[in-house]
Each structure stands twice: as structure tokens, then as C-alpha cells.
Amino acid sequence: MQPIIKVSQLSKIYQSGHKALEDINLEINDGEILALLGPNGAGKTTLISIICGIVSASEGSVTIAGYDNVEGYRQTRELIGLVPQELTLGAFDTVWNTVNFSRGLFGKKPDPAYLEQLLKDLSLFDKKDSELRELSGGMKRRVLIAKALSHEPSILFLDEPTAGVDVELRKDMWKLVSRLNQSGVTIILTTHYIEEAEEIADRVGIISGGELLLVDSKRDLMRDLGKKHLILDLKQAASYLPDSLSDYDLLLSEDGMQLTYTYSTQADRTGITALLQSLNGAGLSLKDLHTSQSSLEEIFVKLVRSKV
After folding, report:
1. How many CB atoms lie within 10 A of CB 149?
2. pLDDT tens for each residue of 97-125
3. Which CATH number do you get for residue 56?
4. Which residues contact 219 (CB under 8 A, 6 or more apart)?
5. Smallest Cα–Cα separation from 119: which of 150, 88, 91?
6. Is 241 part of a structural domain of the chain?
7. pLDDT digit string (tens) for 33-74?
8. 143, 100 contact by CB (below 8 A)
9. Of 126, 52, 131, 136, which Cα lies nearest the Cα of 98?
């Protein structure tokens, strides 16, 4: 599959000397949802600002649908819708005029039917004649999305789209993102809400300190970097672990009723059979056992800490 966006050896150093990005290489596939995950200050906003042509790169290049985003700025910008992190809206214009004006900026012919449906999809149509200053923060966030979609882009960037919004609106926006993606829109989402990446993304990229640590599908990321935990419930509380179990790196719960054994899903052998035999030999009787998988959050924290 030919990538719709290709970022090659991209770096950004500001005049202050701060290196915001270092040697970023990234390919984004047509029609996918990519979540760029990272802590505040990791370089997520700088990266998408460069791709969208708002910030100039110090080194490297970006191509969008085969066009260089500097030499072919007009062609690439028409393909992109951007929802910024900040609520950059006027105060006295109406919702309808704001969205209609944004469409005109891209040279699109008037299409009231399209804009009406767009506002309905975003639960904004009943507010179409309201001035922006009258809207809540969550509604203003919806207006930003409507502006970004007003010219019918094939690529949508969402920079921390749910920052400062309530849980209900966050879930509504996830549903909207899924619908847009189903219609063929490529979506790039930056977030530090790990549950967003887990909920809607096809692939996850993790950024820390201006470096892209990895990009992989959620499934492969969980499989390759995730750990499984075997939870062992004991029939009787154990006050300590016998020396014969020291090789298994077991974690004993505070009440002494549960043991946790962590193992890699990629190892040739899990060691579980030997562990169970050792437990029996140590006189520890099991009441029950079950497994759990590392979450994306645990993987994210581990990767970011390894970078620091």
C-alpha cells in the first residue's frame, strides 16, 4: 500500500537551541487511524504542524499524496483538515458563518446541504445561529472540527481533540472519528489519553523527547512488548516465599493470599509448568488462577521511562 503521508529524516531545532524533533521517519497509510501518543512536550504538535505546513522543518521532507508539502503547499493543504489544540475562534460570528467562511477559504463552492449535515453530525445544527461566545468549551471544540471538515479533506489531524472536555463528549468524538474513517478519511490523532489510542487507533506511534520510539499496530504492540501476568490465588495465606521459589520473581500480595507471576508472551517457554510444580513442592496449595495482559498504558510508561 502506498502511504498517503511520508515523513523522511525530519528534525526541528528552534532558535533557542531546543531540539523539538530529531530524525523522524514515518509513513501513514491511506485510510488508517494513527494515534501519536506521548507526554506533554514530546513533539507531537510540532510534528503535525510541520506536516500541515504551519511550521518549517530544520531538516528533512514531507510528502502528501505525492506532493512535497513545501513546494506543493496549496495542493497538500487542500487535502488536510486540522483541528488545533487551542480554541482559536472569534467571539461574535455565528457557527454557520464560521464554518461557511472556512469552506470558502479553500475555494470550495457553497454547499449548504453538506454543511447542514456536518453540523447535524456534530450535534451543532441547533446552534448554527448562535454566536461563538455563547458556546461552551465542548461546543467550541465541535466547531473547530466542523471548520476542519468544511472543505471535505481526505486527511484529518486532531491535536489533543478531547483535552478539557467531559467523558460524554469524548466518547461522542470517538464515534465521530470512527464514522469519518469509515467514509475514507485518514485520521492522525495526537493525545496523551492512552484510552483514546486503545479505543480507536489502527496503529500507535509513541513519541518522547522529540524522537519517534516506535510505530506499530495495537495488536502487534501488545503482543511484542506486552507481558502476561499469571495470578495465583492461594487456599491459605503465605507470610513469606520459600527460597525454592526465588528464581520465579513472584510478587506476594499484602494479605498473602495471592501470587503474581509475570512472563513474556514471546518466550519459547513460559515457565508456568515448572512454577506450578515448585509451588506444590513448597507446600502452597492453589485455590484458583487466571491471566491478564499488560495494558497499552503500561507499555507506554515503560518505553517513555526507558527514554528518560
Report:
1. 23
2. 999 999 998 889 999 999 999 999 888 99
3. 3.40.50.300
4. none
5. 150
6. yes
7. 999 988 778 899 999 999 999 999 999 999 999 999 999 998
8. no
9. 131
